[in-house]
Amino acid sequence: KLAGCTLFITGASRGIGKAIALKAAKDGANIVIAAKTAEPHPTLPGTIYTAAAESMLRCGGDCLSKKKRTACFTCAVLKTGIDILVNNASAISLTGTLETETKKVNLMMDVNVRGTYLTSKTCLPHLRKSRNPHILNLSPPMNLNPMWFKNHCAYTISKYGMSMCVLGMAEEFRGEVAVNALWPKTAIHTAAMDMLGGSGIEKQCRKTDILADAAYCIITKPKSFTGNFIIDEDLLREEGVKDFDSYAIAPGHPLMPDFFLD
Fold it and tell me: Which CATH class is domain 6-247?
């Protein structure tokens, strides 16, 4: 379904972004990835180049750098155009207001909100030329229960900023570009989860494959499917998936609910 389409995916050197890229590449899609990790990280696996080598992806640059972002878009547009944007790049710090350093606040606002907004803004003129254009943000439904703010206010604000981009752009570009959000029902095993949760946390998590499969379902729908805040498991159940044990790191082990879902 995605053969010949070009996807621009941010934060795709590892984890969820990479899983979505690999899923689409198997369909014959062209993939352009933007990620900050160019040199090997001492604790995190993968770089933008190892991800590219694994699935013959074309490499882009840091989505926060205007110069690199513009060069990357120019390369993609000149070669194939852009059909689908996946805003996956995200920064996280689960700290209270007094404990969150200013540079951490700036990073989360820059990557999560500013990066999502500006990447969408840059892609939109080219997406409008596509037959079935989509923007997909990896962001949660906007749950205003105070419990999701009290322990990590800055992080919550930044993630809801991504979700507000969905609310606004879905209406602004209705009929032209589909804009949706995707969020996991349970914790997903990524390098970030290992750092936040510590040893053994993976047993309470699902694989990134579940989000890749859900993202695929969304971006292959018509552009009239827009303005939705989608939970991965709910969507896949609607699509007929019954076996969710295959997505678990440790089938049968209790799973940890993700943030922002009561």
Answer: alpha beta
